[in-house]
């Protein structure tokens, strides 16, 4: 129990002070007039003022509260290296035993794992949250058991007690890490993109000047190169294909190296085309010819070369050739020497007129077989004896004309196969599309019929020839959609998809398997023309396999979400389709720096008079130190007892009861009166 004097004034302290001033003036006046009772008057005034202040003697019944010590155990990914986790657990047990042996001490053990995403080790956030749940007046110390690699130092709280760091790891540890300093998300196909790589050795590293590095694209067999250590190296890379390109860089594990988790870096770059180079070969002028030209010219990413026949050889109108054109059209250059420069060749109602020799058209056939793309927009000439089908192009065109031209209105539709094909799937509203007025009857001899017209006859046929692609539109009336006839139709979407399919864009492949990563989760996507597919086999970075079942979300498109347990390169396989994808950041934050060090936390530790000690030297003993005193020494660390308590009961006893005040004040005033009255007589 402890006692103290407390005041509970009957009047505000300001009024009591004013009354005290008036009493002092009265006493001073009595003294100046030589009254004998001035002292007694002063005492009477003090008694009254003391009574107004109402002093009491307060006695508190207190119960002491225990001191709280926080033990924060770092269980993040970097702590899994070597024997750090075991050292952390053993040290926490030993430390807890020492603290439990002390009187009036409680322990709070807190485990901190990996944060969500790539946030790193959030020790200070855990300490702040723990302090928010405990009375700060009872915190006697905080012990961090960690490798010191903290990534939220800005959240360090204002600690009321010493902060200590018990450092895991060993002084002899060393690690080699691969750093990708810059990696763009997109790159233009055919143009080199420069990546900056660096290999660094940290800790008690060996004296090595170089190492080897393996570079693999899309999981293919890696190529090996020499790599200097401690220098930035610029590496130019040309992407092999459009879409996602996964590039893996790997430095082999060296002898006695701490970990190989930061020896591999994944870079995922989307390959995009800078410009689409198109050669438009037009035959007899017609209403749709300008539509093709306007459509292609309206896209700023398209470089268009338009080859057209303004006057066929059989036309004799007497106009000199020199007045028809200023320069000769470079047919040989286009169709023989530079044909490989084009991404797409479009034949719009073109027929054989003797202008393009058979050798030119045969070169177009070779161009397709070697990876090029040709789109044939057929008109009535396609059904005639001069049809380009009656040329070397017959070997690549996927449908044969029957020589019949149907002249009547019809509404284009999507076939059952077309519902699953990426070029035409999802083109909703077919029942509201405008009609076309002419269709060339053809018999398919290969490929996929994805759109149909009159009596379900083939309207759009797609085919693969060698390494290239061919498409045949069996009508020259697609331009009616662009004019808005009877409401028009999705001409722009259809032709854009068609062009991208012919350019082999991965998202428009009819048989494809790929994944879209987001952090540690990937969306696995399988597109197919089949009705069903098997489970996708996922091979993790450590080599284990797992099967994932996909569900059909739209016709021909199957998807599933998969969360990878590790950071690294995952391989996907279903049937003959394979893909690779990288999960996690190119350089995980937890493994950017793996050598245990107290340098980051030293300012926070020193600010509380704490200390940094290595666990390989043993667990320090615990001492009690006064507040503000140094809390670290050789072989020991200190905690500050807070002497907090809980008040159980409070008793107050008035020091001046009313009867005593009345008696004292009356007696003193009476005594002053009698003394002064006796002097007067």
Tell me how many strands there are: 37
Query: Any idea what the shape is?
Result: elongated
Tally of helical segments: 11
Share of helix among residues?
Answer: 10-25%
For the termini, the CA-CA separation is 57 Å
Q: Tell me the structural class.
A: alpha/beta
Please report which band the strand proportion falls in: under 5%, 5-15%, 15-25%, 25-35%, 35-45% or over 45%.
Answer: 25-35%
Radius of gyration: 45 Å
Biggest sheet record: 8 strands, mixed
User: Which blocks of ≥5 consecutive residues have pLDDT under 50?
Assistant: none
| Mean pLDDT rating | 85
Q: Which strand order do you get reading across the main beta sheet?
A: 16-15-17-18-24-23-22-20
Describe the structure.
This protein is α/β, with parallel strands linked by helices and 681 residues long. A hairpin with a 2-residue loop joins strand 23 and strand 24 (468-473). It starts with a strand and ends with a helix.
Q: SSE layout and pairings?
A:
Layout lengths: L1 E6 L5 H20 L5 H16 L1 E10 L2 E8 L9 H17 L4 E8 L10 H11 L5 E8 L16 E5 L6 E9 L3 E3 L4 E11 L6 E8 L5 E6 L3 E6 L5 E8 L13 E9 L3 E7 L4 H11 L4 E7 L22 H7 L6 E5 L9 H12 L3 E5 L21 E8 L6 E2 L24 E6 L3 E5 L5 E8 L2 E6 L5 H4 L8 H12 L9 E7 L2 E7 L8 E4 L5 E4 L2 E4 L2 E7 L4 E7 L2 E7 L18 H5 L5 E3 L6 E4 L7 E2 L2 E4 L5 E10 L3 H23 L1
Parallel strand pairs: 3-4, 3-5, 5-6, 6-33, 8-14, 15-16, 15-17, 17-18, 18-24, 34-36
Antiparallel strand pairs: 1-2, 2-37, 7-9, 9-12, 10-11, 10-13, 13-14, 19-21, 20-22, 22-23, 23-24, 25-26, 26-30, 27-28, 27-31, 29-30, 31-32, 35-36
